[in-house]
Amino acid sequence: MKAIECLKYGGPENLVLAEVEKPSPKDNEVLIKICATSVTTSDVLIRRMNEKPIPKFILQCIFGFGKPRKPILGMVSSGVIENKGKNVSSFNIGDEVFAYGSVSSTKRHFGSYAEYICLPEDWHIALKPKNISHNEAVAIPYGGLLASHLLGKTAIKKGDKVLIYGASGSIGTMAIQLAKNAGAVVTSVCSEKNFELVKSLGSDFVIDYTKEGAELKLETYNYVLDAVGNSKSSTLKEKSKKALLPKGKYISIDHGIPLTPKDAFMNLKSLAEQERIRSVIDRIYPLEKLSEAHAYVENGHKRGNVVITV
Asked: Where along the chain do its domains lie?
């Protein structure tokens, strides 16, 4: 099968198209013929591996030193079950499914930068909502699960004021929708070019973090959700950490290891079926141009998700 392998850590040029052996499902696994995958910020972080010494050492202990121990990256997939192990009872051959390969900090399976992937049936796999395409389905789990992790640290009530910093990315676009579903009044922080997008997702107010004096537009909020973490900052972001009502809470995606439980995954599927959340797709690339997609995501200005068709 065709796959993209990461030959060594570094630039996107180290992602190379290769012919590798097609996997066979174990007794408890399904074999998915992948129709779409996506390039996430986490994928770029792993491929680049240029963190500070201690985080870098920890990451290389997990993924391999010098190059990835398992060279095929990618954690999200949507496709069709082509085969299954003898003990699989939840799915049938021909089912259209979508999946997320990171169940917990100790249970993860990359490998979606390929034509096929095998995953245990009890991991984060579900029937794809019939009302969305494979491209749309693959754009839900990463941002949706991380946004669910952020929202899980809140107790949002109807009318609560929520500020979302980094509202136009894959996590932020989902956080807007989940917060609105919970009844929040949402202020989105992003660049002016993304105002129309975040408003279409339900944002009530917008602030352009690039404008001088943007911090003067801050109010006080029940929750400030930082969807970009320590990788980006601004005067507005620093001020927003204290723009809190009494008992207000600032929550960063970098606070602790994000939890991605199965019930959160299934909740995203349900919300997509009810059309209470929708995918945001910035660009679509073919598998053969995955290195270009990585370079674009690494630039740090994508809107929502970057999808790869397989």
From this structure: 2-139+279-309, 143-252
